Amino acid sequence: MTLVVLNETDRLEWAIKHFRRQVQRSGVLRDVKKKRYYVKPSTAKRIKAAAAQRRRHRSVRRSRA
Description:
Elements (H helix, E strand, L loop, with lengths): L11 H15 L1 H7 L6 H24 L1
């Protein structure tokens, strides 16, 4: 759980920025997006394989340059 403790001297803008950063680092929103809809196991495998292929192609392109 993400928690931001404020003192009396802390600004609200700082707290919101800090909270957003913590949520992003913890990966909460990423998990919520992933689990919003059910994905069949076969479809998940296809998506995972396509992502791996994109990473491999990107790696090859970067190593050539």
